Amino acid sequence: MKPAANLSLLWPELPYPERFAAAAAAGFKAVEVLFPYGPDTAITKVALAEHGLELILLNAPSPLSEPRGFAAQVGGAVAFRGDIQTAFDCAELLGASYIHVMTGEGEGEAARSALIDNLSWAADAAPAGITLTLEPLNPVSMPGYFLNDYGLAADILAAVERPNVALQYDSFHAQMIHGDAVQVFETYRDLIAHVQIGDAPNRSGPGTGLVDFASLFQVLRAAGYAGWISGEYHPGPRTEETLDWMTAL
Fold first, then answer.
1. What is the C-alpha to C-alpha distance for residues 166 and 132, in angstroms, rounded to an integer?
2. Of 247, 164, 215, 230, nearest to 23 (Cα)?
3. Is the pLDDT confidence value at 61 over 90?
4. Catalytic choice (50, 54, 232, 241)
5. Which residues does UniProt mark as catalytic (predicted)?
6. Phi and psi at residue 185, to the nearest 5°
7. Rounded alpha-carbon distances, angstroms, from residue 108 to 74, 105, 114
8. What contacts 24+ positions apart, CB below 8 Å, involve 177-186?
9. Where are the strands (E) in 109-220, listed by range?
10. Is the pTM of the predicted complex or chain greater than 0.90?
């Protein structure tokens, strides 16, 4: 298992370009940036090269449009296709392996059908080497968001049935949605391609809330998970004081 740093959340006290140096100094080899679009694309590309870091994940759509997403919006296919192409271009330029496809708001069968159609199209259009991920987001943090349950995510993945579409697991959201982040990973581990961690209920650093991280890391090891584990949480005043989880992997 390999630690990664989400630079949209970690080191919030530093200007964005300086977070890459901080991550490298802390021992990270890879980072996530949720929305590296617009002027941040060029800044990110330079910083990655300067500090020898790999960008593993970004989100779609870009905040230049609608951050919550179009994928499950009825009638949103045109907007979704235009925006996902922007994400493809950005991911290829920056070398990202994963694009988290945000579903946006919606409910019911119409939203489900829209998401299946849009995600199937995106999977077929995606450049080689890029995996699209779905991440359930809890309704406290994201009220009205369509993909708000891991069972629903599994249903969508089964309907899409593409090798380059997978589940993105986040311990914070898993705990908030289902009450047991460890059990969620055990239940859906065969679908999971990427892992993010944060504690509940405040998306604080690991070990400050309700998630049993000792058990979670044990289950990850037992499952043979060998991918990235990205810290995506609010670290408080000093990010360096929250990085003990790196040595537990």
1. 6
2. 230
3. no
4. 232
5. 135 (proton donor/acceptor), 232 (proton donor/acceptor)
6. -60, -45
7. 11, 11, 10
8. 177/136, 177/138, 177/139, 177/148, 177/149, 177/150, 178/150, 181/211, 181/212, 181/216, 182/211, 182/212, 182/215, 182/216, 182/219, 184/150, 185/216, 185/219, 185/220, 185/223, 186/219, 186/223
9. 131-134, 165-170, 192-197
10. yes
Q: Identify whether 18 is a catalytic site residue.
A: no
Whole-number pLDDT of residue 142: 93
Backbone phi, psi, residue 197, to 5°: -130, 145
The residue ranges of every structural domain in the chain are 2-248
How large is the average pLDDT for residues 54-81? 86
pLDDT of residue 2 exceeding 60 = yes
Out of 18, 105, 109, 135, which one is annotated catalytic? 135
Q: What pLDDT, on a 0 to 100 scale, did the predictor assign at position 98? A: 98
Please tell me the distance from the alpha carbon of residue 116 to that of residue 194, in angstroms, as a whole number: 20
Task: Name the band, by pLDDT with cuts 50, 70 and 90, for residue 67.
Answer: low
What's the CATH number of domain 2-248, 3.20.20.150, 3.30.70.1060, 3.40.30.10, 2.40.30.10?
3.20.20.150
Dig out the tokens for 36 from the structure.
């590296």
What is the overall mean pLDDT for the chain?
96
Residue 213 pLDDT > 80: yes
